[in-house]
Amino acid sequence: MNDLLLKQYIGLIECNNEKISILANTSAFIMQNFQDISWAGFYLFKNTELILGPFQGKIACTNIPLDKGVCGKAASTRKTVIVENVHQFAGHIACDSESNSEIVIPLIKGNQLYGVLDLDSTSFSRFSKEDQIIFEEISKILVQHL
């Protein structure tokens, strides 16, 4: 894991108390520091579904039920989901037809679902276990500041 990258991320968000700004800068930070990511952003849990939050990339779906798509699966199971080929994922929601792989990390704050961090790539099998570790660490740091 890249400790310098995590220190830069902490420096970016630690003096900010505005949740929307923190989420927006986090998505921009990911887009600027990681290769081959076509969409980086958040879906926030509200009532019974995920609602589009700050993101970087093409336009996106605005509402995702917890029983649909990769985001819904990560949110409902509260576990990171890596999909090597989204076209083979049952119930995949195709917001961007150019997306081919995806990783979604649930954001849990105080034992409650806050939302998910959703990352897409136009490459197949883009996201590895190493990516999972660093994105989960970024998510842990993020949740502490929300």
Report a brief summary of the structure:
The protein is α+β, with helices and mostly antiparallel strands and 146 residues long. It is built from four helices and six strands; from the N terminus they run ααβββαβββα.
Written overview of the protein:
The protein has helices spanning 3-13, 19-33, 69-77, 129-144, and strands at residues 39-46, 49-57, 63-65, 81-83, 101-109, 112-121. The protein is of the alpha+beta class and 146 residues long. The chain has a single domain (3-144), classed as Beta-Lactamase (2-Layer Sandwich). Strands 3-2-1-6-5-4 form a six-stranded antiparallel β-sheet, sandwiched between helices. A hairpin with a 2-residue loop joins strand 1 (39-46) and strand 2. Helix 1 packs antiparallel against helix 2 and helix 1 (3-13) runs parallel beside helix 4. The chain is globular and about 40 Å long. The mean pLDDT is 93.
CATH class: Alpha Beta
* Spatial order of strands in the largest sheet: 3-2-1-6-5-4
Low-confidence stretches: none
At the fourth CATH level, what is the homologous superfamily? GAF domain
Structural class: alpha+beta
Q: What is the helix content?
A: 25-40%
Instruction: Report the CATH architecture.
Output: 2-Layer Sandwich
- Tell me the series of helices and strands, N- to C-terminal: HHEEEHEEEH
Major β-sheet annotation: 6 strands, antiparallel
Continuous helix count: 4
Quote the distance from N terminus to C terminus.
Answer: 23 Å
Rg estimate, integer Å: 14 Å
Mean pLDDT comes to 93
Number of strands: 6
Q: Approximately what portion of the residues adopt beta-strand conformation? A: 25-35%
Gross morphology: globular
**CATH fold category name:** Beta-Lactamase
Please tell me the total number of domains: 1
